[in-house]
Amino acid sequence: MKAKILVLMIFVASAGAAFGETVAIQARASYFHPSDRVFKEVYGGGPSYGAALSIRLWKGFALWAEGDYYQKKGKTTFTQEPTEFRLIPLAGGLRFDFFPSRTSPYLAAGIGYFLSHEKNDMGTVDRKDIGYIVQAGLRIYAGKAVIYDFHGNFSTCKVSSSGVSADLGGIRAGMSVGFVF
Amino acid sequence: MNDLIVNEKNPSHVFAAGSTYTASGEPGPDRPRKASSRAAGYVMNFFKSLDGGATWSTYNLATSADTDGLALAVDPANDNVVYVGGRKDHKAILFKSVNGGSNWTDITGNVSGTVSDITLDPASPLRVYVQTSAGIYRSEDGGASWSKISTRDAKALIINPSAPNEIYAGGTEGVHFSNDRGDSWNDFNSGLTTRNVLGLDMNAGSKILYAATNGGGIFKNSLSALYSLTITAGAGGTTQPVPGTHLYASNAFVSIKALPSAHYQFSGWSEDASGAANPISLIMSGNKSVRADFLRIIYPPRDFAGMKKLNRSLLLAQYHVQLTWQNDANNADITKNRLYVLENGSWTILAELSAEAKEYIHKNVMKDGEYTYALAVVNDAGREGPAATATVK
Questions:
Q1: In Å, how far is B361's CA from the nearest CA of chain A?
Q2: What angle do CA B273, B278, B279 make, to 5 degrees?
Q3: Does the A18-180 domain belong in CATH 3.40.50.2000?
Q4: Model confidence over B301-338: pLDDT tens digits?
Q5: C-alpha distance from A52 to closest chain B C-alpha (Å)
Q6: Chain B residues whose beta carbon lies within 8 Å of the beta carbon of residue A39
């Protein structure tokens, strides 16, 4: 056990040493695939766009925040009437970069604040709900100012509305490009 | 000799029907018909004289014995056209010649009973009436085919020369008459104390009908005491008697029946009758007119049923009731479907839909509510038919 802790401490101490930026700002594009059955039936997956900000804390740890924008039109389950949905998941948490180098894998976890809006013949609903998000990715530094980030995340945000329940989360995969300072 | 006719247009032409006796089966001198003389040697004959009876030609009609010529009719416009009827072993036998008797055609067809009289319609000589002990038959094609128009036995029949559709028949049940060439009949027995009528004649000028009865004397009745009954029928049916103008004796009891066509129903009488009783009876106390009206039957939709369904997007949801049905193929002229919902014990129109609609979605219902619906079709006259109902829980 002590050996494992020692290895972990060395691992953490070495992280972020060579390419440990202080601040990074990224623009990202992803494909969002919802996990909820009705979400998939009514709207399905689609592109989402967003931005991310990270601030180096210590060693391989960084504060991380991001926001995405997903909008889709679909049809209701029975009458097949048109419906529109907009989702803006804002997330923030802690990121840990493994083996900080020009190519660095990472893991991140945080809390999501899901802003949702839906409109159709049945009415209009606007919601703000809390969820969770975990993310894994690979950051590739191109020089000292540019960074590429290939990532995938899983989010969940279970809500109840109009007597039915739904999960606003799902799997998102994409890439981002940004600048480090 | 049993019947004799003189051509009124050419009185020297005289015709007769009867039978002759011959032991060898060959035609011989005419002999009076006797009940006891119907031996094997009597054969049916037609006799013709073109010189006022000075000389006669005899024509043998039947090839077998036991036949008797009892009735004769000659077309007054062309006395080469001759009909002779009688009996053969108590069955009807009818012959027609179109060349003055030289050749004969058996036109008995479906005529049954013993022929007692043959009458030609003066307005249409191809229309021939034959009275037999089994009823009255009518041919519209000069005897090629026959329709039985009365089941009463008739020994005499006369056509009103002023109104050829009007015919009178006499028999053991008295006199009955028809104003539609025999399609329908009514009794004409007012004052006729003896019903066994053997002969009829008419004075068309003074409109008097004479009836000779068997042992009861001779009666007469004024035809001027007739009243007209005009029957009309609206679309979708007819009547019995058929629509048209009919003449009835004063105070005659007339029954009229409305006969709706397929997918129609009788809706009622109007003009000199009212109500919807069918048949109705009228007493002819004067000229009357009666109209029968019919309505197209409106059938309710078939297979009317409903089911509650959840309709949702991601964050919004409502329960709907899906109602489905089939339109009845027997309906016609339907313009719309009218859908009702039962609310607080009374029916409220929920929607009016096209005639072709087969589905309706009642949106935003209560998840646990019970709903009762009624669906009816409306025709182009705005008439709503009976409704089909469905309850959805």
A1: 9
A2: 80
A3: no
A4: 999 999 999 999 999 999 999 999 999 999 999 999 99
A5: 27
A6: 314
